Amino acid sequence: MLEEDPMLITAPYYTRKDKIQQSALYDCFKMMPKPAVHHTHLTATADVKYLVSLTYNDYVFYSEKENNFIVNKNGCT
To answer: How far apart are CA 75 and CA 48, in angstroms?
Structure first.
């Protein structure tokens, strides 16, 4: 991609959006699991201790196969 268009990384996103969305890399990103919040600033969220405590609930699971957390009040399937 960069060989075809060296400005791809530094150019404004919307000027290269079509080219980016047609790339194999973009296809990989579309397949990645997306949580509700991709990232958050700690000053705009709950206390870190509270967030960590949520991971101890019986309905929060970690999938080694998928390498992600699953939250399901009905249990792990």
So the answer is: 25
Q: Which two tokens stand for residue 36?
A: 């509700």
Please say whether the beta carbons of 45 and 39 come within 8 A.
Answer: no
pTM reported for the whole predicted model: 0.38
Residues 16-52: tens digit of each pLDDT: 888 888 888 888 777 776 655 566 676 777 787 887 7
Candidates 4, 38, 39; CA nearest to 24 is 4
| Domain span holding position 45 | 36-77
DSSP structural state of residue 42: G
Asked whether residue 14 falls in the same domain as residue 47, the answer is no
